[in-house]
Amino acid sequence: MAELGPKLLNTANRKLAWVPTIANINAPTVAELTAGIDITCLVTAADYQFGITGNEDIKDAALCDDIEAGVPGRATVEASMNSFRLKTTVDDKGWTTFTAKGLTGYLVERIGQIAEGERQEESAWKAADEVQVLKSITNDPQVQSPSNAGFEKFKMVFSPQRHAPRAKVVAGP
Fold this sequence. Notes:
The chain is mostly beta strands. 6% of the residues lie in helices and 40% in strands. Strands 1, 2, 3, 4, 5, 6, 7 and 8 form an 8-stranded antiparallel sheet that branches.
């Protein structure tokens, strides 16, 4: 068996943005992604959920089938996260962006794909980056109760509309 390279750590290895407009979710442009709001450092890692969580199970047996065999159907996609509140309005980008139910936009996530020594949140979007894109509609922001010592947070749940789990960023016009 061939020797494998190092494993990809999941610590500080994601970039997440809320992007107002993307023409093609399978090929977002660098300009579209750069116009988004970077929320990477505002989201708590512990409660973060973004992407495919399973598939519907389609079962439609024939009269002659002796088992209830199934096939995978449509993907189930979820997106929700807790975000930190920040003291100044200028810095409180999550709270000032996700103001109400019904806002439409795109969550875009990049995992890895940065040079040694770079930080995800500081690394610019580049053509050929593989990203996950989710067109979604916001639910109501939910202020979280201070159940223990910590920081003020709010929960944001998104209603998925379209999903591109392996989109490629393009240079664009």
